[in-house]
Amino acid sequence: MRPLRALLARRALLLASGLLLAALLLLPHATPLFAWLFPELDRPLYVQESFGTLVLAHLGIVLASSSIAVLLGAGAGLLVSRTAWRDLRPLFETVIAISQSLPPVAVLAVAAPLIGFGEWPALIALVLYGLLPVAHGTLSGLDAIPAHLREVALGMGMTPAQTLRQVELPLAAPVILAGIRTSVVINIGTAAIASTVGAKTLGLPIIVGLSGFNTAYVIQGALLVALLAVVADQLFEWLATWLAPHTAVE
Amino acid sequence: MIDISNVSKRFQHSNAVDGLSLQITAGELTVLIGTSGSGKSTTLKMINRLIEPDSGSIRLAGEDIRQQTPEVLRRRIGYAIQSVGLFPHWTVEQNIAAVPTLLKWPAARIRNRVTELLELLHLPAETFRQRYPHQLSGGQQQRVGVARALAADPEVLLMDEPFGALDPVTRGSLQQELARIQKLSGKTIVLVTHDIDEALQLGQHIVLMDKGRIVQQGKPESFLLQPANDFVRDFVGQSDAGVRLLGLTTVASRVQPTARAEGEPIRSDCTLREALSQFVSRQVDRLPVVNEQGQHAGALLFCDLLGGKAS
Hints:
The structure holds 2 protein chains of 2 kinds. Helices cover 77% and strands 0% of the residues of chain A. Chain A is mainly alpha-helical. Chain A starts with a helix and ends in a 7-residue tail after the last helix. By secondary structure, chain B is an alpha/beta fold. In chain B, helix 8 (168-185) links the parallel strand 7 and strand 8. The interface between A and B is medium-sized, with 22 and 25 residues. Chain B: It comes from Vogesella oryzagri.
């Protein structure tokens, strides 16, 4: 089971990365294609920035915001699952749920006048948005560990820290990773919206296209965002196959 | 070995353990038995400080258990539970090596110890070492659980209904195994169960608990021959008491070496309870007996089931 899943995951990852690379290489030469598809447009290909630069910038902002979201989400989830902090758990879950219910555009609209345009308001919105799946994954992953395993770990003489590191975290890891995966994939899509406040991302051609009635720009930006999301998703699928040897079935 | 003195533990609305005092002798297998809520598991978990008593004290090898940190104490005490509790993300070897690793034994010593224990529990080391718990049967998992509890050669072994979740056949063979290991190693074992047959078969000293107090304690026979009150009589099972009594004695102690009988022989290490079953199902009044090597050893007479000729 596991070798098959790992093999499939590796192939899917290679395929998705190949497609993304091909799109990046071919898009700059695709003027004839888009001119044929959209004959009414004067400039059918987005050339203000190179697509490579936009992908790197997009990845940068996703990486930064997701790292912060993972640290905060997993850290806080871990904290409120411990006995000493358990009382805070309902409050924590409410706050996280509220942050998720705010539309990212609204967060950007509020944040931009307060801290100005550019990357910073985008980062804040993306972090808030990425928290929920990570925190949820952490909490449900830890909840799913049978109570007797914790008792046995303590009963054989592990300290609480050893129990967490050697037993609880490894067993919760697949569920935590699934939460991070959801968070990152959503984040890649949401990061495109950050271009409305001036952050440089793959959302740029989309927003320019939308405001200038240039559908070709929108398609070019959306294609790359979608491929990026697929690559990230497959990367996590591949990581997951390395995490859970004990769930393998012979 | 373990000296529990006037220990009480109260949970929300009830006394789980109520002024309990108990001496557990070194090298003996002590069984704590009772219905659910009798306080037997709470008592067991107070010995390794998974539960802290409200009052009273517990001494292990003459030393108050609160003198050490819980972790150091627990590494001296083996612990096995009903649901086995093998770590599913660790191999059999890693599971058994858990406590030796915590104690920072050198790798070679750990490896040898794992091999030794797997062999002791009749699990071929090379086949099982690298398996994960989900690849084992329930009985094999429980064997690994026992091996893990024994790994660091603990002074005391605590077992909380270790065989509760197993089918009767597997349970029976593991009970025999435990009795063998206990005899071999001379370990002090405290075992919690609600199964009176398990208690009678394994226990050298049995402690019957109810509502957090000891109702009766002593050798297995004393529960059948001198039950302290109606509660004990009910618990032991009045109607089966005689048959259970036969289960405590082996054929070897009643066999007539000079007597002869026809038919399929029974082994001298069987219990008289099994012999009784043979008498009844074969409709005979004497059975041929062979010793553990399969050599002829005489015959068992039905009338000798009653008399304590050699006991």
